[in-house]
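=== Structure Prediction Worksheet ===
Name of assembly: unnamed complex
Input type: mixed (protein and possibly other molecules)
Chain count: two
Listed entries:
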Amino acid sequence: MKIEWIEGRTLDGKVPPGPLHQKWQYFKDHQKLVAPNNKRKLEIIVVGTGLAGGSAAAALGELGYQVKCFTFHDSPRRAHSIAAQGGINAAKNYQNDGDTIFRLFYDTIKGGDYRSREANVYRLAEISLQIIDHCVAIGVPFAREYGGYLANRSFGGVQVQRTFYAKGQTGQQLLLGVYQSLNRQIARGTVTMYNRHELVDIVIIDGQARGIIVRNLLTGQLERHGAHAVVLATGGYGNIYYLSTNAMGSNVSAAWKAVRRGALMANPCFVQIHPTCIPESGEYQSKLTLMSESLRNDGRVWVPKKMDDVLAIRNKQKNPRDIPPEDRDYFLERMYPAFGNLVPRDVAARAIKKVCDEGRGVNATSRAVFLDFEDAIIRYGKSEASLRGITNPDPHTIRQLGKEVIKAKYGNLFQMYEKITGVNPYEQPMTIYPAVHYTMGGLWVDYELQTNIPGLFALGECNFSDHGANRLGASALMQGLADGFFIIPYTISHYLADKIRLPKTDTNHPAFDEAEERARQRFEKLLSIQGDQPVEYFHRQLGKIMWNYAGISRTAESLLQAAENIRTLREEFWKNVFIPGKIDELNPELDKANRVADFLELGELIAIDAYHRNESCGGHFREEYQTPDGEPLRNDDQYAYVAAWEWTDTSKPPILHKEPLVFENVKPSTRSYK
Amino acid sequence: MKLTLKIWRQKNAQDKGHFETYEVDAHEDMSFLEMLDVLNERLIRQKKDPIAFDYDCREGICGACSMVINGKPHGPLPGTTTCQLHMRHFKDGDTIWVEPFRAAAFPVIKDLMVDRSAFERIMQAGGYISVNTGSAPEANSIPVPKPIADKAFDAAACIGCGACVAACPNGAAMLFVAAKISHLGLLPHGQPERYIRARKMVERMYLEGFGNCTNIGACEAECPKEISLEHIARMNRWFAKASLIETEEA
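=== Predicted Assembly ===
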């Protein structure tokens, strides 16, 4: 058993010339534009209606393009951006605490462990200011101070307060803002919305993306849609781990169809494992629920120092409240005094795994640590008592007042925790454990967010561009909105300016016949297998392989095992999956099978990518490459590049193209949060 | 725990539909939907048609899940979506009745899955602030008093699930529509279109076949996000004012 690949070419990220802070301006000053009368003649397909896709469709509609927008949900508002909890970053420096665009850029590059493209990240930090302005204007009810001005809080990996939020429902409020803007364009007729339609193939004509094939999920009918450009904003692939904080429907299929048509998948092994999720409770578990990183502003992470206490807590003979402070190990504060509980996600996740591997996990499965709010409740209680002029408050009053403050900040999260676990987190510490949350890897795009296929763009989590090997908290929402509202409207016009004489796509073109036929055959094949195991079985097995062999930490050996097991499972899937129902009707099992079939290919590529990258960086932790005290050991001499994989035929080894990462403005150093 | 489920099965919108009985063995830490997943996996292994229902985030925020459980949209717990309802709230030996959201404006697609696209059309009628990307002023240039921002947020917490419609004997969508009108109309940024928005959205609501409000309050009681009836009062006020303004302008 071995892993093989073929060396490919060097990729050009098309970064504009000039100093870092003038590159985006340079692009805008020199790009080609499309006049309003021509915009009306140009069609753009946008797939996905989360923050990136929804904002792109709305902004492009506002400009007057003819936009067709697709989602597999029954409404654009259901996209999984809705579930983002904690917040969105912007370098507004409203707190006067030393924040600047450069600092947001620097934090993001460093947080990503020096595996992202400088120019993209700088542009993201620049645009962050406009995002907040625009979101307020479209009606996003961000948290405010009593004076009526916007409030901020901290997130991991930074030393300033730059995160804007709406309780623990920031993603919901931003997505609803985007959805409103999208609805306005649907009403104006610039955007035609196709709900319950899923992309099943991408049509390439003369080397350019010119359309898509979709399945109407209610009728099973395949439909053809043509355009002058196709924009994918279809999210990440974290659901490949079966248990993740992704929604049940989140999938890689649109991006994977692009890969099968020749697009490149970049850094697929960069998967973010979020440290604070509600631990698994049983085999029937369908997904895991995140507890926002914002909770680490006030929650302290700990396990008991003594094994006796650990065992007593597991056996419910002891209440964690009764463990005295000196017998608690606040291990993040101990290991990383400078950042404490607010270290980046990858660092926190590994530390939690480490103490659990030492046997100090605090629940029956020994896979959980405490996230404790008691100190914050007391601290806020005292401060609130003082604000209300209560002198010498008794402990009960202090706790009551403190709980009110915590409720105002995190009420919905605490409520969600209690609903899922049946435990009241105001009285007992939460138990948490890491889970797959976000994928930094994705389709390779250049500075213009265009894949290597002309006319095919990728936005948001679907692309790889901004977060390197680890994403900082509250940056996903920022990137989705930057890409959709403020970048694609510029870069797509640069592309379309040359297409104004190109007639509307003829959906009777043989390329459409071929793509539709390929999709039909695939669905027929899936239904014809009539084996013994439901799709869920294969997804669950795949998830176990991914988590055990390509999860929080990996080794060359575990990755070889992963690749082998996935290949075996994939063969079994195509021989033994059972899908009920018919092709030309509502058939959610068939849709699921189609998605899992793609995950079964991507999984192998993740293993290959992780195997090839002989270093540890960000979320990619190879046990062979670590410092004596267990921190990731990067290898900048050999791996300071984006690994962009071409894999149109999974029966052959993939081709590895490389985009060198050049750091002109920051010096890659060993990340230290100590 | 052993449970008897009486689940509504309906092939499509034309089918009359009927209840079918299933015995399941559930664990108290399962969510209601995980319990249905286990049942569906069993049905698939028996080569039978699994039960169709909408779901996605399973965190109570996307609004995809629906269903009426023992006569209540999203089941017995206040402020809880079906996906966040856990089996520990039921007892061993219970019989549970599961039906789709029932309303004239929400035709059944299959089993427990309904068509809520009427909500989309209401939102498209005016549920937005007309501002183009690029024209916003600096975010802090317009302060919003905290109580107003908080009230707007409470209204904006609506997840668009449709439980209010399913709970209402009149099949009214007033709470859903009022939540959006209130959210946007309360904020200074949404003021210019406050009245026209109320008029357009309410008119569309009637066109879609939703009923009228008779102040029963079932919508508020069953809303998984506990959205207040107060918003309906505000909507009515603004809608009335919209008619006056129009008369004056005419």
